[in-house]
Amino acid sequence: MNERKTLIVIVLVLLGVLVFIGTSVAAGIEERMKQRLPAIVALKTQGIVGESNRGYLAFVTGQKSQEALVTSENKDRKAIYTHIAKQQNTSLDLVEKRRAIALAKRAIPGEFFQNSNGAWIKK
Questions:
Q1: Which domain holds residue 82?
Q2: 4-60: per-residue pLDDT in tens?
Q3: In this structure, are residues 85 and 96 in contact, taking their beta carbons and an 8 Å threshold?
Q4: Could you tell me if residue 14 is inside a domain?
Q5: Could you tell me if residue 18 is inside a domain?
Q6: SS (HEC) of the chain
Q7: In which band, very low, low, confident or very high, does the pLDDT at 63 lie, cut at 50, 70 and 90?
Q8: Closest C-alpha to 44, from 106, 97, 101, 96
Q9: Is 31 inside a domain boundary?
Q10: Residues in contact with 52: Cβ distance below 8 Å, sequence separation at least 6, in sequence order
Q11: Does the global pTM surpass 0.70?
């Protein structure tokens, strides 16, 4: 239950950014992310995916279960990060790195995140 709460907080933070976008595109991203959340929680719980050091989902092992889902999630994350970068007049690279740090801090025990050197760490 704790991991669900953590992931919900992460999604809510991302969705909060969408408020600034204020378009029908934002509504579509929000809905897609909500729909994917249970599957992403399951993939993280199983140790199949983790949060990369760029703020995106990445496969921890060679098993690439639900690859299309991960690709779709990352595409929506990139849209959000790009919007934030433009809004803050900064680079996409910086937004991605900052988001990765926040996601790593919020990881729950048993989940994987990637450190700045690219090594996978199990929290």
A1: 2-115
A2: 666 666 666 666 655 555 555 566 888 899 999 999 999 999 999 999 999 999 999
A3: no
A4: yes
A5: yes
A6: CHHHHHHHHHHHHHHHHHHHHCCHHHHHHHHHHHHHHHHHHHHHHCCCEEECCCCCEEECCCCCCCHHHHHHHHHHHHHHHHHHHHHCCCCHHHHHHHHHHHHHHHCCCCCEEECCCCCEEEC
A7: confident
A8: 106
A9: yes
A10: 58, 100, 113, 114
A11: yes
Give the CA count within 13 Å in the CB-facing half-sphere of 32: 19
Token readout for 37 is 């959340």
Distance (Å, rounded) from C-alpha 86 to C-alpha 112? 29
Q: How far is CA 32 from CA 13, 28, 57, 70, 112, in A?
A: 15, 6, 15, 12, 23
Tokens for 41?
């929680």
Residue 120 lies in a domain: no
Number of domains in the chain: 1
R_g of the chain computed on alpha carbons: 14
